[in-house]
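User: ok so my PI wants both of these folded by tonight, can you help

Assistant: No problem, let's get them done. Here's the first:
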Amino acid sequence: MKNNDRQGAVFLRLMSYLKSYKWLTFFALFFLLSTTVIKSIIPLVASYFIDHFLTHFDQAALLLIIGYYGLYLLQTLLQYLGNIFFARVSYSVVRDIRRDAFANMEKLGMSYFDKTSAGSIVSRLTNDTESISEMFSGILSSFISAVFIFSVTLYTMFMLNYRLTLLVMLFLPFIFILVNLYRKKSMTVIAKTRSLLSDINANLSESIEGIKIIQAFGQEERLKAEFEAINEEHVRYANRSMALDSLFLRPAMSLLKLLAYALLMAYFGFSWQTIGISAGLMYAFIQYVNRLFDPLIEVTQNFSTLQTSMVSAGRVFDLIDERAYEPSQENKNVKITDGAIAFKDVSFSYDGKHPILDHISFKVNKGETIAFVGPTGSGKSSIINVFMRFYEFQKGQVTIDGVDIRQYKRKELRQNIGLVLQEPFLYHGSVKSNIKMYQNLTDEAIQAAAEFVDADLFIQKLPQKYDEPVSERGSSFSTGQRQLLAFARTIATEPKILILDEATANIDSETEQMVQNSLAKMRQGRTTIAIAHRLSTIQDADCIYVLDKGKIVESGTHEELLAKKGSYYKMYQLQAGIMDS
């Protein structure tokens, strides 16, 4: 889609949000139009005073002066009310746009977040929506006001003297040529500037999240150089935008206004005796020329901001229109009862070209525990991604209790599948809120879940116990404590199926024993799939599957696999050797 067509579509879509605020918009426009009418009357009053009361002063002149300043006060009041209503419309529309963008973002699948940085998404929901707010609260009102003032002023000028008005209109084509030329040249520059601002946000987000790694590996200078490069490029394009503004906006428009003044004064000088132009008419026309050009200058002055707002709105609408959703469900009214799982000849690829899972088949009966081991990139986590419906698999079938996984409602799956990740994520809040996760749980149920996984032991030692504040990502807690809180959060939902994605990989040996005890209790009576890095943690599994390049190359119990002396045996010997050394 061409820039012009896209801008038009984006603008119409923005205007569609006004439908929900018809009365607010109506009053905003009413006060704006009323202000314009008052502005057009004021020069007429001044013109009448000059022609009739400049040489003598009486009671009528006094009343006219009072009326003149009364109109100014009324104009100020109406303008204030118009700004208030436009601001309310602006904030309401931006709230709705943010709500739509956030709601759609939450429905997007993992594939979208794999290719889109968090900083870029944050930039769209904050910086870009704020730019839209500026358009509605300031720029749009100035544009509409300019249209009203231009139309009313031009009409009034025609009524006063059509010859003088035609002279002024000679400059209008030049104005529109300037605006159109500026719009074409600035669009690309502004779009690039906004894109670079998004890159800055993405770079900042990654740097803040990875600050420990950056400092540990002494990468401060490299990251500083990368940030500086993006920052410098942003400044370069911002300067280009400013150069265009400085050339095409106020200076050029002000020059045209001065030329219009010169033409009018020359016309007055040569023609006032023959056509009988009064001093009041001269004053009124000079005022109207000023009122004709000023809104156009303001419009062009704000045109760069409008361009920025349109680019920003387009970026937000791209997020709203993104349809890389989670895999769809048929939403049949079926329930998970036992939690028996089966993969039947499942194949999966992230990009549709390179297979990650290649004809995977296995079964897990109710209450059994199976484990997957293998080198990095063998497909272990991909099995979890497919089972959790984060990604859609291309071939085969996955069933729970004999029912195709696609037939369940998403809520049914989420309520009955408990996921514990290698890196437990804690939200800003309290210990209680992190276990509860906004579910309808009582304090007793929260404490029971914590006691079940032995998290209550360290929670009771905290100064505020379950009300203890949790900072961002739970940085004030140890890795083991964060993992136990994640266990409590999972067990509080009472899932029938448990997914453990290397849940003990980052835990020290001393803490591991406590975590293993908690895991053993969690697994009782639940169908469990575990991805393991440490083979010592899954020796009691009912079946262990060894993956390599997306295929199952070995399967059996711990003892059976050791007896085969294959891949699993080599992995076990390697880890045992490392432990012994």
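One down. Here's the second:
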Amino acid sequence: MTETFASRDEFDQAVAEARRAARAYYDSGDVLMTDADYDALADRIAAATATHPEWDDQGVTTAVAAGSSAGGDVRHPTPMLSLDKITTPEEVAAFVATLGGDGCLVEVKLDGLAIRAEYVSGALTLAALRGDGSTGEDVTGQVRRGIAGLPVALGSDWTGEVRGEVYMTVADFEASSANRVAAGGKAFVNSRGAVAGAIRSVDRVYECPMTFAAYEISGEFDTHLERMAFAGTLGFPAACGLIPSVAGERHTAEEVTAAIEEIGAHRDDLDFPIDGAVIKANRDSTRRRLGLASRTPYWAAAFKYPPDTAATVLRDIEVRVGRTGRITLRAVIDPVYVAGTTVTRATLHNPQWVLDQGLAIGQTVAVWRAGDVIPRVTTPIGEQPHDLLPWAPPEVCPQCGEAWDKSSLLWRCHTPSCSLVGAVTYAAGRDCLDVDGLGEEIVIALVESGLVRDLADLFTLTAEQFATTRTGEGNRQVGASTAARIMAGLEHARQQPFNRVITALGIRMTGRSVGRWLASRFKTMDALRAATVEEIAEIDKMGLIKAQHVVDGLAAMSGVIDRLAAAGLAMAVADDGAAKPLAGQVYVVSGSVPGYTRTTVSERIEALGGTASGSVSAKTTALVTAETGTSKAKKAAQLGIPVLDPEEFARMLA
């Protein structure tokens, strides 16, 4: 049973709090409370008004945008409505029953910003946000800067209106946030806030990639599927097609629930943010029969998933040094359940971001987690205690006491020993040498005991030395079983390809892709070490800055490289004499390929003579993906590039 309020004054305070949070959410993208906390507050307000109908909730439960949006100077020809929320299988069944057996659709509920666009003779003439449902803000100029799926000019002379959602993929959100910080601004709190801030900014000087998906278009149609098929012919991707496996009509509550569960199961691996599933009548005759309420249609509802943002208390901020000497900040928080898991640690942006946010130990903060993204503290939320002192980062490296290099937002320590644990752990990781059993805790113990002073030292140790190493506060021995696993892992590391050895060196501004590029271009470690900055910079996407880091890093690790070579690690690309059937071909893999990781599929492509790329271009031979609604798939379609099914591609590679 939903808790109500002890008095009218308490109710009015809750209404004011809800309206402030809604105004920030709809009009600025700021976060004053999490979605889960807002929903709980709105439910309490609704329960109170049911008991006390004379109490005024000022539109919190009855108006579009909770009655808080400022609207805008563009009047919508028909209202842009909200959707009623449902959260249980029983509510799903009750909604399906209202359809009277008529078919319905289940599609993703994108966590973005609702928008309406008008076209005349194929040209974009107006774009406006939803606002208060009746009027919205004119953002035509901002849309003309470029939004994938919402073209400025169509390939036809169509005249009409399209409605849908503007959102950011996870990768686009990260890029937009980094671009904003580089331009002197604060990092975005979440992807929806990033869209709200970017699309309203008239004089924005940094790039914010965004995407549009349609859920309505003008014209006479018998069904929504016909309507969205027509939208697709004009170049507008449909929200109902973003997960193809749930497309199509459903007629029973069991079928609808299964589709909702399938979308929920995909939530962790989607590259775009969702916060629910939309259930809507397919046939227009059903929609006309059920009609509209003042703020919501009776023929559609939104099923809300557990939120990907939760509120918790910040208890500490740990300062560490990463593998390249870069400062890393980790928040210690009260345990909180978010996006399907309980979180006790979360990452933070750079020190300047923490200072800008005024984070303080004891504050309530929002923690965001989407897909397999590492949980992140995004912002302080709600009212904070007045006696808290903002946290200040240490002026010196906590490991060696030397002052930080603050020449960039990502502070660095240049003392080599400070980054040794991170460097060795990274080198032993899955995408590098893949040494089974060798995790950070054991590496810390090896470094602290003096057994490991650089990466090459790992290959000089015996099974007994590993087994008798003591780890952690409990001073536990690693033991013979784990030691045997590590020794087998080190032997396995000797069989890893040359590109992984390059990656394992942990040179600044390098990673999996750069390791493959360098191995493909120079073939041997001797040739790579002899290469000039200019020769390395000639590799596509490298450039002079990365090339200089490679040259400097190879020189600094000269002794380590010699000892790794003596230990038997690969120092050249293996030539097995096999044919190269993919020679001259370029493949972009989006998502997973059966039997491969992201690293091994790229290695296999290049072993067969091809090139593995991260972006679709005119040079791309084919895109490998199971999803047709991604930005890469849309670009491939625009360029006429074939799309291969991952299972088919796995057979090709075999």
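The two ends are 58 Å apart (CA to CA). Residues 8-27 form the longest helix (20 residues). Good luck tonight!
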